[in-house]
Design brief:
heterodimer, A: about 210 residues, alpha/beta, Rossmann fold, Arc Repressor Mutant, subunit A, five-stranded parallel sheet, two-stranded antiparallel ribbon, B: about 350 residues, five-stranded antiparallel sheet, five-stranded mixed sheet, disordered C terminus
Chain lengths: ~210, ~350
């Protein structure tokens, strides 16, 4: 029997996941939590085989940070990251945290149970690409790596000087990227751009 | 002598040319003796001074006192009023003229023998307008930045609502599909397989809408209940003495500290119980967290902060709280948490915290 820890702060989503697991024969839900940081504690006993971890959890605790700690203290525990956010950095962060699989709740074509089964067989499941969103008149797939970094730092409230320092470029280069972003998206201000990017879950710097 | 004599008749014409040139300058110029009596005042200076004082330049020293005394807003541009590097000082004044233009007056002494006093006047109207526009744009940017930060602080809640809506819509769609299938089978003859499939679909939808899973059981303080539950899972109970914080931010910090203490107590000291003592005084919660773990397993003085404790300390400090890890026969976490909304008293936004994941 596979002991599963579900970490999902949305009650409706949590109930749906518990229902799916309940309908499957060989899974036992050890606990269902809302806060990812509590999941780290729960895994300390070494009795959890699989963690289904949401990224944005209660009290703004990051599921990605918690997953990294779980993999440190209990490497044998498998972790599947779940999210409905198309945030472009989540997949890379999940890989860096040594997570086993990654599932998009709304965009994935593979069902959660199939992802779980494959993960427990030792076959990681990762999305081929990040879901795209529309930012103004632009499809997010057309953004360059650097433009994504600039949007992320703008969303964190960084000034142009701070962005330049963080990316190790000149302020003029930052202004150049911002000008391109506004032209590509058709937005009149960086505030519009950031609001749209954050509202659509494309950039979530807190996690 | 003869050379000089040749130039003498030209002097009046030369003086006239010099006069004409100086009068055609767009700036005001006034050259005076140290006592203030004018030697040379050009047309523009007299014009500008007349607009401000009602008379032409009679004495430069008196004029400067007069200009300095103009303090009503219609005449003066006050310190720091959109001027940037042209801010007024002892030898610099900036004044509005009735026609809306802005003029900067600069006074200096021309060293030499004899010494002269010079006053110049420059039209800085355009620069003043640009500085004003820049100041307004910066104010707008600051406002936008504040709105951005407010948006980010709420975005987690907004996204959760969206997720919830999405799942509700799926449930709604499932119900809708069943209704459509039912209507279809009522109006058209279907096979027994179709009817069996319809019954299964209805069972799934009804089960989803009526099942009350374990996760529904949440107490008054779900965050604390959840922590207590995971503590029991790892065989370490939490005993609370005193009333824990109820204010949202203080409560979040409090639980983060209890969680960290629990983690360290189980991992490093083999503890089976963690004691949390809370007292409230002068608008602050004083909290001490200790455990019954093995003293030998604890690190000796001073406590070496790992990633968890270090990160917790930074979080506390950003929220205006204090945090200390003491080691004397066991590790005790000691902290003081403001009871009001942490951090807002400082007017800061946690940019540092937002940078990490």
């Amino acid at each position: 029997m596979v002991r599963v820890l579900v970490v999902e702060d949305s009650k409706v989503a949590r109930d749906a996941i518990l229902r799916w697991l309940g309908n499957a024969a060989n899974y036992e839900v050890a606990a269902a939590l809302e806060n990812a940081a509590n999941a780290v504690v729960a895994c300390m006993g070494g009795h959890i085989d699989l963690v289904l971890m949401d990224v944005c959890t209660a009290d703004d605790e990051s599921g990605l940070a918690a997953a990294a700690r779980i993999k440190e203290i209990s490497p044998g525990t498998r972790v599947v990251i779940m999210t409905s956010m198309p945030e472009h950095s989540f997949v890379a962060k999940a890989r860096a945290a040594h997570c086993d699989s990654f599932w998009y709740k709304e965009y994935g074509e593979t069902g959660l149970l199939d992802v779980i089964e494959a993960t427990m067989r030792g076959e990681p499941v990762w999305p081929d690409e990040t879901p795209t969103v529309t930012l103004g008149i632009l499809n997010s797939a057309e953004l360059t790596r650097r433009e994504l970094d600039v949007i992320r730092l703008l969303a964190q409230g960084c000034t142009y000087e701070e962005i330049a320092a963080d990316l190790t470029v000149s302020i003029n280069t930052v202004k150049y990227h911002i000008k391109n972003l506004l032209t590509k998206t058709g937005f009149r201000s960086t505030l519009q751009l950031v609001v749209e990017a954050v509202d659509k879950g494309f950039v979530l710097p807190k996690y | 002598m003869l050379a000089c004599a040749r130039w003498l008749p030209l002097l009046p014409r030369l003086r006239g040319s010099i006069r004409e040139s100086i009068d055609s300058l767009p700036e005001g110029v006034c050259l005076c003796r140290p006592g203030g009596s004018p030697i040379l005042v050009n047309k523009k200076m007299n014009e500008v001074v007349a607009h401000l004082t009602g008379h032409v330049v009679l004495n430069a020293v008196t004029l400067w006192s007069e200009l300095s005394g103009i303090s009503d807003r219609s005449g003066a541009v006050l310190d720091g009023d959109h001027l940037g590097t042209w801010s007024p000082g002892e030898d610099t004044l900036a004044l509005h003229l009735p026609d809306g233009s802005v003029w900067q007056f600069m006074r200096r002494v021309l060293e030499g023998t004899p010494r002269y006093l010079q006053i110049e006047a420059f039209d800085i109207s355009k620069l003043y307008e640009y500085a004003k526009d820049l100041s307004e744009a910066n104010a707008l940017l600051r406002e936008q930045g504040a709105r951005q930060r407010a948006l980010l602080s709420n975005i987690a809640g907004i996204n959760r609502e969206k997720e919830l809506l999405s799942f509700k819509m799926r449930a709604h769609n499932g119900l809708g599909s069943c209704l459509l299938m039912t209507q279809h089978l009522r109006s058209a003859a279907g096979s027994s397989q179709d009817r069996a499939a319809l019954v299964d679909a209805w069972r799934g939808v009804i089960s989803g809408l009526t099942t009350a899973p374990r996760s529904d059981v949440r107490g008054i303080d779900p965050s604390r209940d959840e922590l207590d539950m995971v503590a029991d899972m790892v065989g370490c109970g939490i005993e609370y003495h005193g009333e824990p914080p109820s204010e949202p931010r203080a409560a979040t910090l409090f639980l983060a500290a209890v969680r960290e203490a629990l983690t360290n107590a189980v991992r490093h000291a083999g503890a089976t119980a963690v004691a949390v003592r809370t007292t409230k005084r002068d608008g602050r919660y004083h909290v001490e967290i200790s455990d019954n773990g093995s003293a030998e397993a604890h690190a000796p003085e001073p406590v070496r902060e790992g990633v968890g404790l270090g990160s917790l300390r930074r979080r506390f400090e950003q929220e205006g709280a204090t945090f200390e890890a003491r080691s004397s026969g066991g590790v005790t976490l000691v902290m003081d948490i403001p009871a009001d909304d942490c951090g807002e008293a400082n007017g800061t936004t946690d940019v540092e915290g937002v940078r990490t994941w």
